[in-house]
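Bumping with the actual sequence this time:
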Amino acid sequence: MTTAHRSRVLDLFAGPGGWSEGLRALGLRDIGIEIDPAVCATRAAAGHTTIRADVATYPTAPLRGKASGLIGSPPCQTFSAAGLRAGNDDLPLCHQALDDLACGHDTRERLRTACTDPRSLLVVEPLRYALDLHPDWIALEEVPAVLPLFEHTAHLLAGVGYSTWTGILNAADFGLPQTRRRAFLVASRIRPALPPEPTHADGGSPADLFGDGLPPWRTMLDVLGCPPGVVITRGNHTTGGSRFPTTGPSWAVTGRARSWLLKVGNRPAATRRRLDQPAPTLLFGKALNDVSWIDSEGTPIRRLAVEEAAVLQGFRADYPWAGSRTKQFEQIGNAVPAPLATAVLGSLAPTALEVAA
């Protein structure tokens, strides 16, 4: 086994590149396994290596001894609050599949037929790969409802020599302008598995004897700014006044001006956030057209743009999304935010310099 082979990172259910961009910031790269053709096209355009295949049927034997790290973000539709939550009914079957794999029995096919939604069982795939490949470290991400399954997986990994940590992380604590909460599992055979240290805090935190404190959460205004095309209202004055964009959102500086808010959902109690706040968790799928800008009186202005959604999810504005508009939003909403991926991997995966050494 060469050092080059052993330094490879395998990314299960790779998605458009959230984990990949997070690794890239550390000087590392992954090889993704992804079945969706539009997602594969996005990854290719972004320069991320991909095997187009079904994670659940892909053989692990050819990969043995070739992966130092394992990343996985199984599809979350069956467990997500935005879906029907069929995964809740399938939790006992998922727990059974984990125990069976740990005992050397692959019962996935039989258990899958008993699931309310066969996709629920995809959450056990990372353990199958981990037990077969024995990577140095592992990082998994899912919606919070999956945390009990991650805790079970961590227990089984601890039984074969891994240090583990599981918990919920808020992406806003790591520099993303979005209060996105997700479950994580990190494991390592070469160092203690610890959660990343937050880089931001709600309202900021004061300096003390141990450090300078943390800056406040980043806001939508911090990352989206105001596009070109500005109207300056000065009244009877020739200088000063308030500046408002004609083509994009602005934060009101006068009582009469209408501020833009981001609304997620179509119910009366749908989440609304001002521009000087982080975005709520971006949910697309069937609710694609319900993520939109409104004014302070609730009047619709326009739908959220792909470029805006990408930036709020931690991607660059010109990230090369492939597929239809619906498909692009779906990829963005399902992706791991790159800043959060970098934070998680920074305390877990070796850097490019360590690999070279």
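The tokens above came from a reply further down the thread. The first helix runs from residue 3 to 6.
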